[in-house]
Amino acid sequence: MAQARTIVCGVDDSEAAVAVADSARWLADGLGARLLVVHVVEEPSVDPEALRSCVRERSGANEEEVRLLPEGPPADRLLETARGEDAELVVVGSRGRRSLHSTVLGSVSRTLATQADRPIVIVPPEGPLASPKTTGGESASVVCGVDGSDHARAAAALGGRLAARLGYRLVLVHALQDVKAAFTY
Length: 185
Prior knowledge:
single chain; alpha/beta; 5-stranded parallel sheet; two-stranded antiparallel sheet
C-alpha cells in the first residue's frame, strides 16, 4: 500500500490560523493526504503543552497532527519540516500577526513563495479555500495563471494533477497586457 502524501500547514497564533487550518484540512481530505499542522515556537519560555493545546484548539487538529517546531525563522523551519516529511504541499496564511508590515503577503508567505522547493498554497485572510464541489450546477475549478515560462508550465502540470485528484476542472488563464494602452499613460 502506498504511503499517504503529507500536507504541512504552518499556523501562528493569529485569528487567520483558523482559515489556514480549515483550508489545509479541506485539501488533505480532498487529496487523501495526511495533515501535519506546525507552529514555530517564538518564545522558549512558553509552556509547550499549553501552546500545543492552543494550536490544536485553533486549528481543529488532533494530537497526532500537531507539531511544535524549535525557535528560528518560521519560513526556514516550515521548509525543513516539509522536506523532512516529503510534503507535497505547504499551506500558510498570506499575512499573520505582523500584517501591518506587509500589505499583500507576509514575510513568511513571501519567503516561502520565492524560495520553496515545493508548491505553496497561500490562504487569504478573508477565509478558507474550501468550497462546494459544484456551484450552481457547474463543476468547481482549479484556476492557474500561466505566462509560457517554465514555472508556469510546472504550475499548470501541478494544477492539472490537483484538479484531477479533487474531481475539479482545470482553468488556465493567460492575461495579455494591452501594450497600446500602456503607452498612453
